[in-house]
From TrEMBL:
The chain holds residues 1 to 268 of 371 of the full protein. Residues 1-167 form the 3-hydroxyacyl-CoA dehydrogenase NAD binding domain. This is 3-hydroxybutyryl-CoA dehydrogenase. GO terms for biological process: fatty acid metabolic process. The keyword Membrane does not apply.
Amino acid sequence: MGHGIAEVAAISGMEVKLIDVSWDILNRAKERMTDSLKRLYERGVIKDSPDSIMSLIEMSVSYDVAKSVDFAIEAVPEILDLKRKVFNELDKVVPKESILATNTSSIPISDVAETTSRKQKVIGMHFFNPPPLMKLVEVIPSKYTSEETVDFTVDLSKKMGKTPVRLRVEVPGFVSNRIFLRLLQEACREVEAGEATIEEVDSTARNKLNLPMGIFELADYVGLDVVVDLWKVIVERGASDVKCSSFKRKVEAKELGVKTGKGFYTYP
Ligand code: CAA
């Protein structure tokens, strides 16, 4: 999601430093941002040319470029040790007065904050895929986060054209994924009980709940490995569980959704 968030910040006129572990990944990110910006430009959603927006984004494989940033957003995979390692590095390089945000969808913000020397300046800032189109941003304080940090992050989300939801407390799955989990659980239960097919559940979600995608379709889009991790974290931290094995079986078969060409549906 990192390149999507970088794109959104640049669209809002901000200078962006995009850091990743290899130039291969960064070049792919560049292609995706350019493609997305072209589509937004052609549809009249943005007025500035894709080239002028891309010129605001500097890419690097070194943390050094972060030494002048006002705000850093981490979007590495959902592995606590990896997040802590990245936060440790950012804490060394990013100016002491700047905020460090994590785009995590499940890892407790406090666990990440504890690895830094600025716990009150660490916050959750959770975007949704695809970031250029999805309006919601969840802003999640940890038990250490200062009010000033929360206010700044809410304002920044608005400057990025988003609609922030400010959580009062840090709960697993925040607001959106707790609801998403319930939808997934019930959809999975209905299918496994033979009450309805995947297609029928998805048709109902689209045509009754007015969701832009069906529930299984959305799970494929998010990535079934991501879904299973989310499910696990939210349940481990106290939410009730429903016995459904379809998601886990798909992940074991490496059918992860859109990104592998097959999940509950098949993709060209
Ligand atoms: N950048 C720019 N434009 C894009 C784009 C992108 N990344 N993705 C799609 N578009 C454009 C398409 O080109 C298309 O433009 P035209 O109408 O000119 O052809 C337009 O947007 C609509 O796209 P599609 O026709 O492909 O399909 P759609 O109408 O279904 O829209 C969608 C696609 C916006 C993804 C929509 O299906 C949607 O909102 N789905 C739900 C997404 C969602 O819930 N995301 C959250 C997932 S959870 C998460 O991310 C976080 C977590 O914690 C797991």
